[in-house]
């Protein structure tokens, strides 16, 4: 009877080994690039939209704030995918979550600034830029948290 125990244990180990490796037993290699400074990434994302945001056109300012928000979203996905286990949340899934945040948060802030009952037909054209700015500020916070996690775990 004892030999059956060992045979079953051996078979179970052989069958489950690939599944265990996929579920986190096989770690990805340590990243070769240094952990970035969150503020440096944030500043770079704001810098790429400076010309648009400096325009007198509300449409350009809105596009500039969105360009910054999308840059920050890309940095979040890039850095979060380094520290988060791929089997739990892939880079593609992180990117999809950032889009969902953009859609929900941006839409809410659009309504908060532009669909105000007291404004009647319009709350003013300047308000049309705030939803993307607010989204970029949220993404700044998320990116800072992601980089802090990378620093904490030196990953």
Q: What features would you highlight for this structure?
A:
0% strand; 155 residues; 6 helices; mainly alpha; elongated; 72% helix
Structure description:
- The protein has 155 residues and is an all-alpha fold.
- It has one domain.
- Helices cover 72% and strands 0% of the residues.
- It is built from 6 helices and no strands.
- It has helices spanning 2-25, 38-47, 50-53, 58-83, 91-114, 130-153.
- The longest helix is centred in the middle third of the chain and has 26 residues, at 58-83.
- It is elongated.
- Mean pLDDT is 87; it is low at 16-25.
In the predicted model, the low-confidence regions spanning at least 5 consecutive residues are 16-25
What is the domain total for the residues?
1
Element order, helices and strands? HHHHHH
Average predicted local confidence, pLDDT: 87
Helix content: over 70%
Structural class: mainly alpha
Topology:
Layout: H1 2-25, H2 38-47, H3 50-53, H4 58-83, H5 91-114, H6 130-153
Helix pairs in contact: 2-4, 4-5, 4-6, 5-6
State the gist of this model.
The protein is mainly alpha-helical and 155 residues long. The protein has 6 helices and no strands.
């Amino acid at each position: 009877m004892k030999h059956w125990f060992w045979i079953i244990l051996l078979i179970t180990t052989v069958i489950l080994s690939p599944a265990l490796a996929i579920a986190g037993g096989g770690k990805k290699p340590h990243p070769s690039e240094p952990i970035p400074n969150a503020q440096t990434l944030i500043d770079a994302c704001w810098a790429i939209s400076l010309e648009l945001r400096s325009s007198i056109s509300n449409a350009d300012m809105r596009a500039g704030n969105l360009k910054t928000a999308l840059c920050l979203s890309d940095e979040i996905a890039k850095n979060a995918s380094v520290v988060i286990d791929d089997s739990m949340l892939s880079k593609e899934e992180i990117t999809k979550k950032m889009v969902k945040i953009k859609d929900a948060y941006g839409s809410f802030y659009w309504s908060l600034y532009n669909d105000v009952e007291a404004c009647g037909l319009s709350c003013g054209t300047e308000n049309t830029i705030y939803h993307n700015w607010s989204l970029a500020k949220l993404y700044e916070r998320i990116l800072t948290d992601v980089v802090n996690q990378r620093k904490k775990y030196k990953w």
